[in-house]
Amino acid sequence: MLAGLAGDSVAHAALLRALLPPLRSFFRRRLGGREDDVEDLLQETLIAVHQRRATYDPSRPFGAWLFAIARYKLVDTYRRTGRTSARHTALDDMDELPDEFAFAEASDARADLDRLFEDIPEKQAAVLRATRIEGLSTSEAAERLGIGESDVKVSAHRGLKALADRVRDSLR
Amino acid sequence: MNSEDLIAALSRDVRPVPRHALGQRVGLGLGAGVLATLIVVGGWLGYRPDLMFAMHGAVFWIKSIYTISLAICATGATLRLARPDGRVGGWLPLMIVPVLGLAAIAVGELAMTPKGDWLAMWLGHSWKVCSRNVFLLAVPIFAGLLWSFRRLAPTRLALAGMTAGMAAGAWGATLYCLHCPETSALFVLTWYTLGMAAAAVLGAVLGPRLLRW
After folding, report:
1. Is A5:B14 a contact under the CB 8 Å cutoff?
2. CA angle at residue A40 from A39 to A46, to 5 degrees?
């Protein structure tokens, strides 16, 4: 999202594509089998995400922003088509359900990690990304980063420790 | 059109969004509206002839601070509600502070004025037109804010319309101070506030219709 805001069209397209599955399941669950409506809403939401991307505040969770738009589009559709059964009017107050939640959490967690990684030395961050997030082995990471295996181990250890300190500080 | 084509089409035009794009957008709409209202005040009502002199007195500033602080609160709330996941937060309750402040001044004013003059003080010379003028001066500013909202994403339309109307009313009232020679706090508290409230109500009514996206 941030790269898209900076004008990176490839990243922007990748983001929009990544939004399809969670949005589709969001609408599908609420529209129960009306596939045409699901696709219409999906596209409307993508257009809104694109056109109104200036309203995203990078310091706030992306998932909350996205599903606020999706929910608005859904409620707007109900309003237009005049469907006002109790189940649907309750949507306004509805909080995120588990799988949107998981998506939101995943995207927020990444943003949080990025922020934390900015605070520790670059090498430690690179090692941690390679070994703990991408799941490379010590030797693969050493090869990729062009440093010794023992250096990888030491950096990972120091990096984790530094991160733990940061987290502890921020909780205090 | 399938979603893949749509994404390709949307990604063709990805202009960078500056960090404070939302604030700029609202600022631009607000600024244009304020400018239009300023011209209206000059051309239609005329600036008060003793404006330069009045600006040295406390009364002018009490009125201005009242309307400006309300305008800031309403604008802050509007900015919040321009985001889909926005909550008004503390801006709306904060508006009670200037109202109470001016009310305190009005009470002091009443205490210092003989009872027989209360009515004259409350009605001033222009009570019949004051609220209406404040309301009318809000219209260009409200129009400017509506333009801003075309790229924004409010999800609580009535509330966003109300705060936008209130902001337009309060900025309009601020500019009305450049014309209006009334000096009583009680007068401002009643008639200015009434005009601003009318603008807020209009915004709340129009919001769901005009802010839809």
Report:
1. no
2. 90
Cβ–Cβ < 8 Å for B84, A68 = yes
A7: nearest CB among B14, B25, B152: B14
Domain residues for the domain of B74 are 20-44+54-210
> Is this prediction's ipTM beyond 0.95?
no
- State whether residue B21 sits within 8 Å of chain A by CB: yes
The candidate with the shortest Cα–Cα distance to B34, out of B177, B162, B130, B174, is B174
Q: What is the pTM of this model?
A: 0.74
State whether CATH 1.10.1740 applies to domain A1-95: yes
Q: Report yes or no on B15 lying in a domain.
A: no
Which residues have C-beta within 8 Å of that of residue A104, sequence separation ≥ 6?
Answer: A61, A62, A63, A64, A66, A67, A96
Q: From the centroid of its chain, how far is CA B35?
A: 14
User: Is residue A39 less than 8 Å (CB to CB) from chain B?
Assistant: yes
Q: What is the pLDDT of residue A106?
A: 61
pLDDT digits (tens, 9 = 90+) for A31-76: 876 788 888 889 999 999 999 998 998 888 888 899 999 999 998 8
Within-domain flag for B131: yes
Number of domains in chain B: 1
Q: Which of A20, A47, A71 sits opposite B10 (nearest CB)?
A: A47
* Nearest Cα residue to B10 out of A83, A95, A42, A129: A42
Cβ separation of A54 and B152 shorter than 8 Å?
Answer: yes
- On whether the CB atoms of residues A48 and B213 are closer than 8 A, the answer is yes
Closest-CA residue in chain B for A61? Answer: B85
Our CA-based measurement puts residue B12 at a distance from the nearest CA of chain A, in whole angstroms, of 7
Nearest residue to A69 via CA among A107, A36, A100: A100
Residue B2: inside a domain, yes or no? Answer: no
Q: State whether residue A40 sits within 8 Å of chain B by CB.
A: no
CA distance B65 to chain A (A): 30
In a domain, B1, yes or no: no
* Six token digits for residue B168: 């337009």
Q: Where are the alpha helices (DSSP H) in B82-150?
A: 91-94, 96-112, 118-123, 127-149
